[in-house]
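cron nightly-structures :: item 1 of 1
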Amino acid sequence: MGYGPTSKMLVNLVGGCAQAKNVVPGSAMWTLDGDRTVQTTVVDVTAVKGRQAVDVVTDHMTFTAGPDLLLLTPDGWTRAADAAGTVIAWTHARKLCRERLTIRSGYEFGYFVGATCADGTVGKNYVSLVVNDGGFAARYATALTACAGSPHVWRRYPGRRAI
């Protein structure tokens, strides 16, 4: 009976990918908690000689696992051997360690929202505001840093002048 990944399968540790056989108790690992990824600590590792394996084929990848590995589906946890034709939950590896901004309300947040909505662009994964006044850009960047708690990124393009 196989309950987990094969020994050579890559798993997502917090410090980066590693083969399953190199995971030890105490390793920090990414796991699903509902629809979010969270860090968890490995408390025990068991190795067994597997006599069976199944290939799990998705739209994005194929991996080999033990038939009793539990996969999250819309109907709950399902054994890999029984998951044919069902949708399974997964996430892109690059999104596992993504830190989300924590917005603090107040004057700075209002300044940021007002300036962005007045003259900015809001895209799927970015917010952009192009200005010609360096003083305004500095105030905007300071407000963004104060309300979002992340370092601001703004660029000056030398040679551009206001018309």
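cron nightly-structures :: done
The radius of gyration is 23 Å.
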